[in-house]
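It is worth pausing here to work through a concrete case rather than discussing structure prediction in the abstract. The textbook approach is simple: state the sequence, then state the predicted structure, then interpret. We follow exactly that order.
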Amino acid sequence: MSSAAPNISDIAYTLDHYGDLPSQFVEVILPEGHARGVVVVIHGGYWRAKYDAELGLPLAADLARNGWAAVNLEYRRTESEDAEDAGGWPATFEDVAAGIDHVRKVLPEAYVGLPVFALGHSAGGHLAAWAASRTDFAPGTVGADPVVALDGVLSQAGVLDLHQAHELGLSNGAAQLLMGSTPEEEPDAWKHADPTRLVPAPVDVVVLHPEADESVPVSIAHSYCEAAAAAGGDPRFRAIPGDHLSVVDVESRAWQMCMKELDRLAEAHGSKPAR
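Step two, the predicted structure:
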């Protein structure tokens, strides 16, 4: 079980850049002893620059305490004050792909061959689910030809249906801000960026959604799962207690449920629990 969360300033990690821009980095925390797998943590914040990787750091630290090699991924985001470091389509997606591929370079040789999962909250859930389908992308498209292919994804209150997020105007039009267009203006880009339009994912996708989430409605999760099932996929949906932020509180029951779902993914890939 998790111990009490440390202060952000007390968390020790290794910083490594996968690109030349300020937001192109990962923070790595390794477990003591045996690692059962690698988890890439992708933070949320409706893809906006005012929310950063600090949101994912407590999760990464708790994952490492529980036997996981954790990689907390930062990426370019919208509304950045630095024009060169600005995200959106396709920069945000390119960064997530590059950051996941960087796992191969940043982890010790002993970690090669371990299963690699992505855990994403809110907008990070969207990006994690998008990255799950990279092996299916046509050559030359954004995110294609992955160096590191994910073995599974756990979405925490993820914005998994980008089109519905746009239709609902979530977070003051955050989806349109991310894409820099409407679905009518750039239908191909929106289709490629939307996990619900990419189903079925080639790996297991676990969809966890808080029962009292007022930031990302549960209809987003249902839309994704229904589309995936209709396309022949087998998504796992679980309603969990709490609100939108409960899943990123490492002392919460919701977070413990997330950890159990990660255990289940690992066991499906033959990974033993940490001792």
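Step three, interpretation. Residues 253-268 form the longest helix (16 residues). The longest strand covers residues 204-210.
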